[in-house]
Structure formats: structure tokens, C-alpha cells
Fold each of these.
Amino acid sequence: MRRALALASAGALPTAGNAFGSNSVTAQDAKFPYAPVLPGTQLQFPRDHGAHPDHRIEWWYVTGWLDRKSAPSCGFQVTFFRVRTPISAGKSRFTATQLLFAHAAISDPQVGHILHEERAARAGFGLAEAALDQTAVWIRDWQLRQTASPRNGALADYVANVHSREFALQLRISPTQAFLLQGKEGFSQKGPAQENASCYYSMPQLAVSGEITVRGKREIVTGTAWLDHEWSSALLPQGAAGWDWLGLNLDDGSALMAFQMRGTGDLSSGKPLWSVAKLRQSDGAVLEPGQGKILFEPQRHWASPRGGRYPVETRILAGTKTIWLRPLFDAQELHSAVMGNTYWEGAVTAFDGANANAQRIGRGYWELTGYGGPLRL
């Protein structure tokens, strides 16, 4: 019940990694003076590793692969959302102006489906907070934080701690590269109109170490991860039905982000409302294919027991690069009881070329929303 009340207070919430809330908005919400994201916005570090409470929504999103000695590799995700409610701060410390949500998951092929848990809380009283000066966000004993405040351009490690009924994560996440500004120096459009935009940077090629526990079995792990930090006050573009997002750590040290926003007719036309990609090569050079030069071509679908039909194997053409994505396993569908949506989000392997028999070139995470019906928020 407390979670339901928190959602009612939020007005419009994300469902997963790169979401922008509902197409509908209450009159109170529409009039609230959320801070806008404007063209020409310059990100400032280390300040922008921290929270931006004047904006409507924000998330810190970590996904990756973990390698184990006595079991197959598995995928993981740890995500924290901050939501600014359309409630003005009052004299009472109990005024719910900021809400925090978190979800964590393990994609273990030995289990065969995602293990997932969520949390939600009103920010405050030391029980749930999002710090301003560095990445430090937590809900009770769940946390994602930098180990120190980044200074003079240096990047601090992150730690992620999650304990749930069926799994636990205790991970140290270390940068090996500089952060990657998405869009135009961090101003990332999600549709043809500039107002549908966020501030967005990524940290690819993160080195992971630590331990996980899956259904009582504890194991030491190493791996690689990808972190997205994004904040916005925008809604989905008009006519949007869902999105596909890929964060891919390539084996040669390069990194690719690819994203498309689909409209209601995109499944038949194949033409998205908006698509962007950014590839940082191993030599540090950054390539950005223009609009119309990024194609997502489904190759194989998986039918969910919940009714969704997801393109779990997809070929992506980004400029001159062709990548074939294959899932760790098909049943990586996630149902969020807190946010009321079902979507597919899981670990994928990337192959170089036009078919899945080509050479492996990397591993990442693939997010698919809106394939099981309209998003309900």
C-alpha cells in the first residue's frame, strides 16, 4: 500500500533504464516548475555525478556480466530512480517532495528466468537519500555509491550492495575509461523535438569484482559493467509506444550505445520515431551515425507467457558496423510490481557480422519495452 501511494504521488514514472514517464500528465503535474533540460547544457563534473533534485526524474543504472568459476556467466542489474513529485516543499519534514525507487536483478541461465526485487521509499531521515556532490544513493541497506568524491578529473570506484530473498550482490565497480557524454556533449534528444531530451552520460568498460549469492550459493565473481546516469523533466515523444536500448562493452575495449524510440506503427513500418548511436573506438575516437543510418532488424522473437513478443535476437546496423545480438537466455522478461509494467531486459552477446555464427565481439545489456502492450504508469 505504501508503494502504491508513492506511485500516486509521483505522477509519472519510468519503467526501466532509459524511460521518460507517461504520455499523460495531471493538471497539477503540468504546472509544476520542474527544471528543464536545455540545448547547450554543459555537464559539470564532479558535481553531475550527484543528484539533480529540481528535475522531474533521474536514474543511476548499472548493468553487466559476472563470471563465476563453478557456474556459467550471469547478468546483473542494479538501478536507483529519483523522482521529484509535483508537491511543493512545506514546513513539515514529512512532505514527500522526493521519492526513491530501486530494482535489482540476476539473469542466471541455471535458474532460467530473472530473479528480481524492488524497493521504494520517500527520501529523507537517513533511510533513503540521493547525495548532491557524488553518486551516493540508497534505500535502507540497498546502496550504490562512489567510494570517494571524484576530484581533479579522477574517477572513484563504485560499490553496489543489494540483499533480497533469493539473491544478493556485493560488488566493487571500477572505471577503466573516462565517462562518455551521450548526444551533444551530454544533451541527449529522445525524439525530433528538443524538449524531449535528457542530460545523459555513460561509463562503459567498468571492471567488476566481488561476490554474489544466488538461492543460498555464494560465489566470487569478476566481470564488466556499464553505468548510465540520466536526468530529465521531459515526457515521451508524442506517439511513442516503447523503446529499445543497448549498452555494449566490446572485447577490444570499445563501447557502443544504441537506442531507438518506436512509434505505434513501427512494428510494421520498421521506421522508428528516433534513433541514436555512439561508438567509442578502442583508440578513443568517437563515431556517431546520423539519423536514418541506424537500423534495428529483428531476427528471432520470443513469446512470453505474459503475452509479449520480443525481438530477442536482433541485427543492428550503425553506420558501417553490423552487430548481431543473441540473448544469454530468452526468458529475461521482468515484471515490475512497483511500476506496473512488464518488459524485457537482459544480458546479450554481440557477434560481428550479418549472422549469429560470426565471431564474438562483446557483451552487454539489451532493453525492450512496449512489446507486450502500451506502458501503464
Amino acid sequence: MSDEVKQEYLLGTHDEEIERLGVQHRAWRPQVLACWRRAGITAGSRVLDVGAGPGYATVDLAEIVGPAGRVLAIERSARFLAVAREACARRGLANVDFREMDLMTEPLGASGLDASWCRWVAAFVSSPARLVAEIARALRPGGVAMFHEYGAYETWRLAPRGPAHDSFVSMVVKSWRETGGEPDVGLELPGLLDGAGFRLRSASPLIFALRPDDYMWRWPAGFIEIHLRRQLEQGRVERAWADSVLRELRAAEADPASLMITPLVLEVVAEKIG
């Protein structure tokens, strides 16, 4: 692949980010498993895992579909794929096919699959429409496409409200869009799916008010810490500003009455009709 195709992920692919993604997956796992169950993922299903990352969802899918099923894990990071392969090997999961590729530049070439899973991928790609079209081509008629994508990222707030945190969220949204992504891409999904031959089954907002002792708190807090560190390493932000964001986060964590309102995620489930 070209250097352009292998452009670096927002937070990198190093060990610290792999660990953070594990926390993120564990925090969201109850909602994810419920989504898959409602969509009909079961033993024998053939599922496409789009943007598989280090394979946390891949492992869960492979265990659910079992030896009679199959998972096709698509990921453009060789580093992430190596971690995913190792995780599946440790569990003796031989029902996963791994493919290193970028759907923005290469056709998937798969067809006849029962379902697809896509979480926080459409928000980063250069063409969400192309992503949806590739998923449509991979599914059989009646196949189900499942997405978790942000729909209102700036709902991410502290309570009591924190000005430094608000400025951090605004910075993330601004830089996200400057690099060609769209944090609120979930709002575009129903229209894109309709245009690609899908019937919308459901669209549900997922948003949480977390207390500091809630395990899920670690998901947004970990993002703040790693993103700030990365921005500082790259000279994109001032140390004083980064420190103010972290001080506000630590103060919220020390206050049992504080809340973290998470960025709204839109869960979209659609069925291919043709």
C-alpha cells in the first residue's frame, strides 16, 4: 500500500492505544452485544467486521457465530491486525479471515454475508457513501448492516460544566473536520443507507451520564489523556492549555457528585432489500 493509504490513525497504533481500545470495547460491550442479538447474529452467521482494529469485537463475533459461522475482519493497520490475529489464536478461533486493506481505495470483493458491524469508522473515512456501498455489495439480500457512529459529538460535557473541557471538545471537532472526517456522520447514515438499497430497521440514540466510579468513565477519560499527550508531542497545543483540561478532569474525578455526559452515539440497523 502507498504511504497515503497507510496514513496514521488519530491516536496511533502503539501499545497504549491498543490498551485504550480494550477499555473502550469493554465499556461498550453490553450495548454492542445487545445490538448484535437484536440484529440476529447467532451461531452460523457470516459477519463482516469493518475497521476491526486490534480485534476486540472480532473475537466476540467469532465466539458467537462459532465453528459453523465466519467472520471477515477488515483493517488497514498491519499492527492492529497482528494483535487481532494473536488474540484469535490464543482462543483457538479458526473461523476468522483477516484482510489488510483500505475500503477507500480497494474494493472489498466479498459477497453473500449475513451481517456487517461498523463502529466509529464512517466518522473517519474520506467517503462514508463509498463505505456504505462496499458494505451493501458484501451483504446478501436480507443481510443486516449495523453501525455505531457519533450523531452529536458536542453533547460531551462535564456537569458541573467545565470550560476547559468544552474547549477540548471543540478542538477535537475542529481538527477532526480539518483532516477530512465528520464526527456527526451518524446523521448522514439513514440517507446513505436508503440510497444504497437498505431499509432502516432502527435508529437509537445512546448517551450516558457517568459517575467517576463508573467503569465507562475510563472510556472518555482515557481518550482525553492520550489525545492531549499526542497533541503535545506533535506541538499542536500549548502545555498550559492541556494542563488546564487535565486539571478539570482530575477535579471532576475527585468529586463524587460530578457527571460526565458522553457524546451521543447513534445506533443504526438496516436491512438490505435488494
Amino acid sequence: MAEEWFERWFNTPYYHTLYKQHNSNEAAHLLASLSAHLNLRKQARVLDVACGKGRHSIILNKKGFDVTGIDISPANITHAKQYENEKLHFHRHDMRKLLYTNYFDVAFNLFTSFGYFNTKREHIKTLQNLNKSLHANGLFVIDYFNTFKVLKTMHKSETKTIGGITFHIKKEFIDKKIVKLISFDVNGRQQCYMEKVSAFMVEDFQELFSKSHFRIIDIFGDYALSPYCQNKADRLLIICKKTVC
């Protein structure tokens, strides 16, 4: 089967160059807020879904949690494994497939690491599997871009030079997805990648969570956990509780 866009793009070093401003400091800010709000017990079992190179997992582990990070990118997991310890483990895994059953206390899906799939069925199946991976009354936290604000402020094209690479970015809203075409030159060789993320609004998540047996308990609009305001929020941060197996 042909590689999905996210399998190809996330497995390159250029993805991490383009988004290098989203670093460990940003992750620490978010997780300090979330840890205080969730009041998780020490030694809680945590699943970091689409963990990338492990920046959130590492911080959660340092807070005393037993953390499992999963990501579809072999390059990301190879990098993350250097930080493994007795209570921090990384696995290459597709979030659309079930990993464990009734095992985790909380699952995190951070930095818009959802909405990648072609069908609603795939998104619901993914959430249903995450539900099954949690203990009774387990929590699921998703951090998504605020689609309303993204569409309102979206520039159709922009150029960014980061780490010595000039990225040419074109954005479009196509078939209820925000599509980003990213092109750049490395050592005289042209590179081109795509991002294609569903333009999910709060109402869409309400439907997805209802069909995957989660109940929304909190919605925030930034990493300081300020109230969500559709017109102003930088993020859409939703906390859910498992309702049934």
C-alpha cells in the first residue's frame, strides 16, 4: 500500500525543523497546566498518542508517571528510545489499532496529532480503541488547533526560513480539510510534502466522542487552560472521560 502523507512527512527531519518553535518549553507549559488540573495520582499509567520524538512523554515521565509513547514514524521512535527507562517506553504503532485493553489511566493526543485520516469511520474507530485502552473512568485529552480561527486568519501562501531551509507553504480549504503543501530545496534537490488535517469544530468532536463512548468534561482555549472562545482561542483543548467499555 502507498504511504499515507503523515507516514512520509513525519518521518523526515524537515518536519521537526519547520515546527522547531514547538519545543520542550512549550510542552512543559502545557503539561504543568494539565497535570495540576487533572490531579493524576503518582505512578499513573499514561499513553502519549502520536508522541513524535517524545517531548511530552519525557516530561510526563519526569513528573513520576509510567508513560508509553506511540508513533507511526520509525525515525521518531528510534530517536525517542534513547530516553527510555523502567517507566518510559516507546513503540512504533498506528493509533488506528488497539495497543492494550483497560490499561491506562489517561491518554494524551497533543499538538494536533489527529484528524489525519480519510474517513469519519477511521477517526471513530481510533477513538473507540483509545477508549478500550483506558481503565473505567479513564481520561482522554486532545489538543487540536482552533479550526475557526485557523480558517479566519489563514494566509494562502507564506515563506519561512528556518534552520537554513526556506519553506514555501501553500494552504487551502478543500473537502472540509485544511491542506498544506510544503516545498523546499535541500542541497539542490527539491522536496515536497503535504499536510491534510480535518477541519474539526467543537460540534464535530462532540459527535466523534459520543460515538466512541467519551463524555466531554472540559474545553479550554490555550495552554494556560483559559476558557474556550471560538473567535479568539489559539487552541481547542478537550478533556473527556470514558463512559463505557
Amino acid sequence: MATVLDILQKGTVYLEKYGVEDARLNMQYLIAHTLKCNRMQVYVDFDRELSEPQILLLRTLTKRRGNGEPLQHLLGTSQFCGLEFKIDDRALIPRHETEELTDRCAKLDLPERPEILDLGCGSGVIGLSLAHHLKKYQPRIVLADISESALSLAEENRATLLPEAVVTLIQSDLFSSVNGPFDLIVANLPYIPNSSETTLSREVRRDPAIALFGGEVGTEIIERFFRDVNHYLKPGGIIALEYGFDQEPTVRAFAEAAAFTAIEMLKDLSGICRFLFAVKSDKVS
């Protein structure tokens, strides 16, 4: 009978053969998922013999991962800002950069009972994480997305993680069905150029196209955002956006044209300019 170590070694070699990055780490997660334990327990149980059903399940999961199915889809969950979210192909898999954006938002100087909009919410990771980490301020959170499927996933996460929080879900094409104003609008909108589809990894191409592609240039949806956002912000309200690695000049120009002040273009932990924070001018109605 195969042991945990046997499966870990053979599975790692298999995933490496099919070009999976961090193959050993992927196998650790798949084994932990199958055994219903945490990843560190895998090391403790190297000599544990697996049952035939467990071996068959791991073979299936390993083949699916080798074919490019994202690890998060196979596990069904993803850790984000200390919470475990349900993740599947209805919405974008959350990235570390978006977690950085959310952490920065949680540290903003917001009023008591802040009104917060998570625009293009996907699975709800940003808005629900803020609802959790800012709960002492009693925030009112609105999750909005154009995708009905994504909103259904966000609702499942809300019901599981924050059933008592004041969270509203709205299907909306940007601001079309949203009522403001808000103290903070945070958005991770599609920003990949349509022409970049063939350059994306197998895993990223499993995400919904509607959550990835922002138009021929990539910034068209962000440009639409800036046309209307002032109407949905309180005076002194803050916007926080994620954008593509080479889009800083374009996004800054959008913010300046919309008369935002205190514009900050911030780098992620990889040193890539990735986030915009800006404040609505009191002179803009």
C-alpha cells in the first residue's frame, strides 16, 4: 500500500512533467485536502498508508491539476485576509495583490459606520474581508458585480462567513444599479487587454473572461469607472483600485481628469506599481 511520502514524491514528479509551478507544494495541498488535515500534518504522517479510495481520488486530482485546472478549484477554497472563501469557476481566483489592496483598505481612516462599495466583487473577498476586519466600526457593505454567477458565489460566502454582517448584494454593470454615496469604493475591475489572452497561463484562462478582460487596451472599464465614480462618493470619500503592471500613467491620468486629490500610486510587494488610492475633492459634486 502506498504511503503519504510515496504519493507526494510521485505526484510531484508528475506535476513537474506537466509544467506546474511549485509542484511539491501543490501535492502537499492535494494530499491534505484528501486526508482532511492541514498541510503541516502531511509531514508528520509521511509513513501513513493510504486507502485505495484515497489513492484513486489523489490520482484524479493530480491529473486534473496537471491538465491546468487551478489548485483553488480542486480544493474548493482559498485563504484571503485570514478567512477561508469558497472558490470555483463562477468568479476570479483571488490573487495576493488583491489581498494587499484589501489590507491597505482595512487600515484607512474611515468614519464610524462607513458605507463601503466593493465594485466588481466577484466571490466577495474584498468586501467581506473588510466587513470582518472593520466590524467594530459597523460598516455597511455593498457587493456589486455584473455577473449573476459571481454574485451567487459571493452570497454563499457571505452566508457562511458573515451571516450577521450588514451586506447587500446587487447585480450591476459598474454603477448602473448602485445607490450611493459611499465613504470608500474599492474595485478590482477587469484590466487585461483582449489581445493578451493567448499569453495567459492555463490556470488564469480558467477564470471567467468577463472578470479578466477590460477591452482592446485593457483600461476601458476603468475609464468608464472614472466617468461616474464621483457621483457615488461622499465629499472626502476614497477610491482604491487595482490595475495592470504597465497601466500606472493611464490610471493616474483618469484620476486627475476626474479631479481627485491626494492621488497615490502604490507598489505591491513585488515592487510593481499596482494600486491607486485617491480622495474626492470637496469641490466635485
